[in-house]
Each structure stands twice: as C-alpha cells, then as structure tokens.
Amino acid sequence: MAQCHGKFKAFKNSRWLVFVCAMWIQSFAGIGYLFGSISPVIKSTMGYTQRQLAILGVAKDLGDAIGFVAGYLSEILPSWWLLVIGAVLNFLGYGLLWLIVSQKIAALPLWVLCIAIYVGTNGETFFNTAALISCVQNFPKSRGPVVGILKGYAGLSGAIITQIYAMFNAPNEASLLFMIAVGPSMVVIALMFIVRPVAGHRQVRPGDKAGFTFTYSVCLVLAAYLLGVLILEDLLDLSQILITLLAAILVVFLVLPIIIPIILTFFSEPKPLLQESLIDVQREDEGNKSENEVIFSEVEDEKASDVDSLPSSERQKRISQLQAKLLQAAADGAVRVKRRKGPHRGENFTLMQALIKADFWLIFVSLLLAAGSGLTVIDNLGQIVLSLGYTDTSIYVSMISIWNFLGRVGGGYFSEIIVRDYAYPRPVAMAVVQVIMAVGLFYYAVGFPGQIYVSTVLIGLGYGAHWAILPAAASELFGLKSFGALYNFLTMANPAGSLIFSEVIASGIYDYYAEKQATLRQQNPSSMLLKPLGDDDDLSCEGTICYSITFGILSALCIVASGLSMIVVYRTRRVYTQLYGNPNN
C-alpha cells in the first residue's frame, strides 16, 4: 500500500504529467485562430464592412498578444491563479460576444465587441504563460522541443475545436462562439492544479528521449488524421454519425500522450540519480562568484579571433592564460579594469534591461514584419476563401491550423538540432522560415495554380515555426528569470504588424476593389463575370485581385525580416558557442 501511495505521489508530481496536461490546455487555448471561422457570421449578422471587421480582428490580436499583466503576475502568483484568471476572461469576453451575435441581447456598438473579443482572447496569454513557464522550468535542457510542442497544440486548437464543434451538430454558426466561451474555460479549470513547476530538472530518466519521440509521433499522426478528416469533409457529404465518430477518435489521439507519465512512473525501473542543470541557477551562482573573481571585459577585446573555433578545452586554456595576464597587469596598474554594466547576452535580463539592447529590438521588428504578415493572412482567411469562390471557410481555417501546428512542432525540433549539433544561433531557423513564408505569399500574389492550397501550407508552416523558435531563443539570450515579461512583450509585435498590414493595407485594398466591382455591377448588371449586387448584400470583392497586391507586399516584408534575423545571428554567434560548445569537439 505504501509503495502504491508513493507511486501515485510521484505520478502527481511528474514533470511529464505536467507537460501532457499543458498540451491539453494548449489544445483549447489558441482560440484566436478561429477568427477566420467566426468572422463571416459576425460580418453578416452585424452588417460590418471589411474595414470594421479588420478593426475587430486587430482588437482580437491585441488581446492575444498584450500579456504584460500575465507576465508580471507570473512572478508573484502560482500557475493555477494565472489559469483561473485566464478562464474567467475567456468566458466573459466570448460569452458577451455570443450574446450579441446570436441576438440574445440588443445590438451594441463596434467598440463594445472590440472590448469583448479583446478580453476573451487575452485569457489566452494567461494560459500560454502558465504552461510555458511551468514546462520550460521542468525541462530546462529540452526547451526547444517543449516549446515547439506546446505552441504547436495551441496552433492546432482551431482545427480541434472546429471538429469537436461539428460533433454537436449546432443549429447555427453563432453557436461556435458559445463553444469558444465555455470549452476552453472548462478544460483549464479541470487541470489548473496540475500544471505547475515540480522541480522537473531533478526527474531526468533514461526514458525521457523515448517520451519525446513518442510525443512527436503522436503529433504527426494527429496532424495527418485531422488533414484526412478535412479532405473527407471537403469531398464527401458525411453523415452526423460518422462526424461524431471521427471527433471521438480525435479525442483519443489527444488523450494518448498520458501513456508517457503512466509508464515512466508505474512501469519503469527506479529512476537513476540524474539531474539537469538549471541554466539560470548556474548563472546566478556565477554572478555570486563575481565578487571574488575579477571579470575582465578586456578578454573579449584582446583574445584572438580564432579562439572561439578551438575545442572547448583548448579555448578555456587560452582564455584562462589571457585572464591571468590581465589580472597581473591590473595589479601592476598597467590595465584599467572595465566594470560590467548590466547583464551580458545569455544572462538574466529584466524587461527594462532588455529594452535597451539592439538584439531585442531586431528580434521584435523581425517578428513584427514576418509574424504580422502571417497573422494578417490568418485573420483574413475567411474573406480570402470567399473571394476565390469557395463557400466553406472552416475547412481552410482548419487546414492552416494544421500546418501552423506542424510548423511549431517542426520549428522546435529543427532549431534544437541547429543549436545542439552545430552550435549555430537559433535565429538562423527564424530566418529560414521567414523565407518560406515569403515564397508562399509570393505564390498567391502571382496567381499560380492551387494558390490557396500552396499558400496555406507554406504560410502556416512558417508562421507556426516562429512561435517555437522565439520563446527558446529569448530564454537563451535574455535568461529565464523574467521570461514571462520578455516573451509577452515580444508577442506584441504580432498585433502591431496585424494593425498595420490588416487594417491599413489588406482591408484598404479589399474595399477599393469591392467598391470598384460594385460600380461595375451597377453599370453593367447583365455581366456574367460579376454577380449583381442585391439590396441586402454586403459589399464584397471577388477574384484573386482582392488580395494579390497585399500578398506581394507581405512577401517583400518577410524578406526584410529574414535579413534582420541574420543580423541577430551574426551578433549572437559567440553566445551560442559558449552555451552549446563547439560542434567539432
């Protein structure tokens, strides 16, 4: 009995259990990605123009990205408090939006809907902050895969919620808003006491590598399954019984990773005495030693340029010799020691310290240009699909969610290979995915065959990969101590980019061609190319021209973003050599 009690206690405090439950929370946390599905019903019910809808989308993006409060509270409140606050915000915001759109209450001004969707989506920042901080602290040496998988499930949540929603055969599209208000809040409340830091760096087991392999396998199978379901729904008229069965199988795939903590806790051999080092704790210890050890910034100035390329043992020997010489010179008064002013790259920064660093702002602007472009496409995907003549927008919204998911999972995996095996700076991966996004955007702009499919794949992969690479890179360059505040500030680049690109560029161009086509309809109502505009019809644009110019502009911006990322790579290459060593060792 005592042994069973000990096993159960170990299971309750397992870092893998925390990770799996965080995955479940993230599966319902990416509610912002459903805007493409709910925007058509909001537009038609409220009678909004595309510009008014874009304003609502920007309010949603602001709620999704402004996480100052969540970042600050993460330093003074336990994780379960963050989750409770996020659940309440989600329920109140989207609950009010459902009441308005479903006409349960009288129609309210646009600014009220903006506040409602901001509050509801802002709950997502609390979910993300609690899940990421807990899991990164529990897996300090596997932050790339952990962040990639968690952010991947958040990106996939649009497709997951859509499929579960279809299982209920709701009578109208506004019912999806009700599910968004209730579903995520219920899941988070059920798991809020499990997702927390549990000193995971002391729980290293030989089976951890197999655990990550199994998790990646589940991720790939889940994405392939969802893609297959979407293709079936697009090609065939499925019965409600079959739709329910397919959704039930989806739930099984979501629950499947719980096998990992069960096996590691109840069916594995007693764990060896292994422990991962907490990088930020090591840095704090080094900081404490600084009172007894003289730190010379002259070492960086005086050492030869080829020192960093030497094997670690030889490199350390050369640096120690140079430090000894400088120490003797300082004692003799021949060298004036430069005192450090604030942390260096790779150490713990506060938000205010990071804000005066060029690296931080280069990452921010790069994210604004590239991620902002991707978010603009996601927010306008419903209208993009309709402009091309398709009627079911939810299928394409779910498709880009799947590729978003694979981009996040793959971005975390491949960026980890880059830093672990080659000691290259992680922002290299960000530059690569930004080029991929540029290609996808350009493909649509030119109007090549199958443009919506190819663009959805490439933009989804590239955009998703950003959110696996960014948190890991930020924690490596600026430390874990204020990770919540730093990460939530960087994510503000998302709505900033969306505000400029969606509200000013995409909506302006769309409305221009919509008005131009409306004029042509009035002048030539018998035209076979344009459907006549009825008295009750909304002002809408038809054809590739509605968004092709926008996509061309966004493609160029992604190329600029890739160049900025490469500047960060050049500036931070020494940090990654110090963190991960020389791959030639």
Summarize the structure in words:
- The protein is mainly α and 585 residues long.
- It contains 24 helices and no strands.
- The radius of gyration is 26 Å and the shape is globular.
Short recap of the structure:
This protein has 585 residues and is mainly alpha-helical. The chain has helices at 2-12, 15-27, 35-46, 50-65, 68-73, 79-101, 110-138, 143-167, 175-191, 208-235, 240-255, 259-266, 279-289, 298-302, 312-331, 351-354, 358-379, 381-387, 393-422, 427-446, 451-478, 483-490, 493-523, 545-580.
Task: Please supply descriptive tags for the structure shown above.
585 residues
Strands, helices and their partners?
Blueprint: H1 2-12, H2 15-27, H3 35-46, H4 50-65, H5 68-73, H6 79-101, H7 110-138, H8 143-167, H9 175-191, H10 208-235, H11 240-255, H12 259-266, H13 279-289, H14 298-302, H15 312-331, H16 351-354, H17 358-379, H18 381-387, H19 393-422, H20 427-446, H21 451-478, H22 483-490, H23 493-523, H24 545-580
